[in-house]
Amino acid sequence: MRKLLSRPVNYIIPLVVAFFNFLLILFPGDIVEAARTGLLLWFNNVLPALLPFIIGTNILAAVGFVGLLGKLLDPVMMALFRVPGAGGFALVTGMMSGYPMGAKTAATLVQSGQVSASQGWRLAAFCNNSGPLFILGAVGAGLFSNAGVGYFIMFCHYAGAIAAGLVTARFAGRETGPGRLAPDDKSTLVYVRETRKRPKPFGEILGTSVKNAMETIVVVGGYIVLFAVIVRVLDILGTFEVAQALSQPFLEPLGVDAALLAGIMVGMVEMTNGSLRLSEAGITAHTIAALTFVISFGGFSIHAQSVSFLSKAGVSAGGYIAGKLLHGLISAGLAFAAFGLFGITPREAAPAFFQGDAPIIRVFGYSSALFLISIIGFIALAAICRVLVKKRRRRF
After folding, report:
1. Which are the contacts of 65, defined by CB distance < 8 A and separation ≥ 6?
2. CB 283, CB 260: distance < 8 Å
3. Are the C-beta atoms of residues 231 and 270 closer than 8 Å to each other?
4. Contact status, residue 126 vs residue 160, Cβ threshold 8 Å
5. pLDDT of residue 322
6. Over the stretch 15-66, which tens digit does the pLDDT of each residue have?
7. What value does the mean pLDDT of the chain take?
8. Quick one: which of 233, 241, 220 has its CA closest to 31?
9. Buried b vs exposed e over 37-65: b needs ≥16 C-beta within 10 Å?
10. What's this model's pTM, rounded to 2 decimal places?
């Protein structure tokens, strides 16, 4: 018992949780409303957008498509990011599907033995990204009514992810783990056929994929509701207002609105609410840079979802979060530096397309189309690489 109490975290966490539960009882109306908002966000937006992708990626992994794509992309992914070619599937999944699919796919690759644990956190750090539907629709068209803002943030967000992947790759050691190329005398199809386990009936694959997808999406929904309540509790306590007031004397002489700090703090807890607060400051270089940081970092609501998948695969949560912080800083710096070059001016976006009112994207067609196009593009890139790269080298 004495050893248990000697570690402060062992009694600080219970006290914090007890205080949190006390606030739930003290402000039941606010808490219930926050939970309802989080639940509706999950049901109306996250569930229809992510569930088909999770099912689809599970099926693709089970039938060997990820292994085939990984074998083709090995030269490129190894040379650039020092991860196996299967990481290319995690990259396109994370970019097109949005949080937390990049981390979920990276964890799946680690569990299947195609990627090592140390490669897994680096892969998740630059593959777990926001989807274009959120950036272009919710942020660009919804918050700013400006298509240019959405495209600018999306460019900085994805460019920062690639840059973060390149940077973390330079610090990676020469591993001897999964993802090595097959011997030269084996073709791609033979390699995939030999490295796959005994094939299962498609009915079993489909059933397992749907079951795992439902478990995943329910976990995601639970985290969304939980962090919606946490943000509301912090708001009730006045945490963000106090931070804004304390930072105002230091930020105002620099020409920076102190409200941006409060928006960043909210965004680091929950990305959507933080984006909403930051958008109220209008279109300025500081606002767009702060918003790009929040979207690229993702917020601890996203990280809690991601770590729940990564921890099961033995992937370092600290390394992953540090990688996302690097991604956020690089993207924000790029946005601030390039803001004046792009000449963003307020103009009406196309809300029927970006906000999902058009029939083709009413449920999830927009992201699905982007996902399919990206997969086809990656296959084409892989085929080109196989033609151009004649000598396959083992790099770790």
Report:
1. 89
2. no
3. yes
4. no
5. 92
6. 777 777 777 788 888 888 888 888 887 887 778 767 777 787 778 777 777 7
7. 76
8. 233
9. bbeebbeebbbebbbbbbbbbbbbbbbbb
10. 0.78
